[in-house]
Amino acid sequence: MAxxxxxxxxxxxxxxxxxxxVPGDMRPEWGGAFGSSDMIKLVADKIAPRMPDNxxxxxxxxxxxxxxxxxxxxxxxxxxxxxxxxxxxxxxAHCHFGYGGVASLDPAERKAAEELGTKxxxxxxxxLKKAWHPEKEPALIIWNGSFGYDIAxxxxxxxxxxxxxxxxxxxKYEEKKGGSLYIGxxxxxxxGHPAMLIPTVxxxxxxxxxxxxxxxxxxxxxxxxxxxxxxxxIGLDHVHDTVEELDNDAMVHMHLNSQGYNxxxxxxxxxxxxxxxxxxINGMNVAIAGLIQQAGFNRWxxxxxxxRAYDNVEQGIDRVIRSVLSWxxxxxxxxxxxxxxxxxxLAKRQTARAEDMMRAAVVAAxxxxxxxxx
Length: 374
Fold this sequence. Notes:
This protein is α/β, with parallel strands linked by helices.
């Protein structure tokens, strides 16, 4: 059996429906009084029993939409009672601030967004602390849904400077609390604005270097939440993203999902909206699994995904199970792949042979999935 593998399930996956152009009430069981403690119990009862023995599960939460000062004690108790862990917490700034958040040119919005961030840190270190994994601390992820703009002006430079100053302040605040959290940006090219201040992995890596240079914030435990789908959305190479992240020791968390275009079955991809399918079995994911194995990455791998607009509760739960098992299958195939032979073929320019080897690894991964899923 493989070494311990940490997967985290996202609270926001369990929603009654997206609404808008698709039904908002497909899963009424997950609406209304269905809270974060209920979701944690559901994961323990319906998902954990389907996991391989080497998998440990955690939960990801937004402050203050999914966990706040009022329900944090119940959430922490639910995590501990069900042998689950706090894997990631993030300020839900996009729920409150539409004009830049901590990057805003509106001083009142910026101040309120900064307070949301420090309250997130406070809760992680207080009420929720007992639900931390004993070996793998949670990540504090900064999603840049608020950090965008839709007008081309010289004000963008000041927004970027505001962002640097505010995140540097948040990092220093967290350091005084204990410095145990792993802090990462989740790059995204768009949503909730047409243009974003941190659109790519390279943007995030450069951002942390500027924070270090300007404000003396160490880059230790700082980096990127590796979000597969956000790179796919604009046609970037998330395999190369992985190389950059690992080369900079900056992969602090992962979000395993897909926009769907790279397996030949599910539609989506560049130019499409953020679909958030679960992890898929394909050659790119086998390659990424091999890269993180070589680098010794063993932190939380989150499943930032949405059940489909037509799924009922049973199908929604099944998709989460499939996502975790699909990634585990890719990891198993990556371990089995004869990397020495692969590199020898590449050195001899035998690229067709290398393709054959990667295709065989994908077939093997599907076989592993089938066995685990049954």
